[in-house]
Predict the structure.
Amino acid sequence: MAKTVLVVDDDPTQRRLAQAVLEREGYAVVHAESGGEAIDRLTKGGGADVVLLDMVMPGMSGMEALAEIRTAGVTTPVIVLTANGGVDAVVKAMQAGAQDFFVKPVSAERLLVGVSNALQMTRLTAEVGRLTKRVSNRSSFDDLVGDSPPMRTVKAMGTRAAKSGIPVLITGESGVGKEVIARALHGASDRSGKPFVAVNCGALPSNLIESILFGHEKGAFTGAHDKHLGKFQEANGGTLFLDEIGELPLDMQVKLLRALQEGEVDPVGAKRSVKVDVRIVSATNRDPAQQVKEGAFREDLFYRLNVFPIEAPALRDRREDIPALVDHFIARFNAEEGRRVTGCAPETMAMLTAFDWPGNVRQLENAVYRAIVLADAPFLQPHDFPAISGMAAPLLPPVGEADRRPGGETEGAQASAVSLAPDSPIRILDDRGHLRTLEEIERDLIQHAIAVYAGHMSEIARRLGIGRSTLYRKVREQGLEDVLREAG
């Protein structure tokens, strides 16, 4: 989903210029002719992801509009524009809550960098808040990404269940985010801030399940050199999440049932039971009712756990959430990997939304992670997802380390790249001996560079002495996308 930029300026020419620059980079642009109109859009519906706000307008000034926007509780990043670049104006704008400050006339590249930075800061702020809540066990259903009908159902049911200590069974395919829902249940309950302990029942060694769940005393068995509390006691006062509960052996299901019914556990080797106060949330990617019919799961335990069932939807059933999930993962991996990816190209997002995602949210997360690491452009391209698009990323021919120069360039790479195209000089004069236009010469030069350097945009930009974002823009303006695809 394209990010929306609200351009607030009483000058229609300035609005159109900003729109042309932003739309070429894939942003959606909406307009407001006055501060009042901008406030109405941001507070009464429509909204925007970034606001470009002119400071000098008839009626309500940009500074007054910015103050009202922040007073209304709108946190959308605002970039102010003015012809007056004095220090006082900058200080006042920043104190009023502006994210950035441009002095007119602003270059296209500076405008795009500013908008990209504002979006990046918004993502990072949201991600920091989400991680802070998770660390303190205070995540809630408001932190779940997605607003599709199936997710709204999950949030509504989860919010109700969180208000009581009722046992919850979360079902759904592998990778749909069952643990995320369990953490939201805990964070939205009165146990938030207390321990949240997750146990994958399918990963427990069969000979240690009892000890891991219920604990053991020192010397209870060979190798028990110290006392171990067990997961139930670790979660005392909080929530115990039993993931893949359908993998638990039948003999352990009996002991789990007793612990749930009596509210106490029997550590291995202990002489007396230990009282525990835990809220049980379990999950499975199997059909527990079918397991009961097959004799693989105890019926009494099933009814004990399945008091309040919640079904986590598969990603293919909530495709409208994919853009929000992609943005969430981009923000996270940008922070983790030190990257500055702005978002997805429209054709990339359309491709991701149309894909069925058999591995659900986990598969999408890993696909975005790989794309972030390998991306060579501000917006993720289809070739950054080769397993889905079937397109390979354009790369330079491999070379030996022995030929590598200190700057990262290699003699072999340079020779290989140059050999791909003949040394055909760019014509300055036309057939009649007159100078060709600068636009025509520039187009030929970029086309020649694409051929010489095999479509490797970083190298082309470096050789031409321009930024990559500028190069991508010029490729689009000159209609050289096909040439670039053929070179790659």
In short: The CA atoms of residues 217 and 227 lie 5 Å apart.
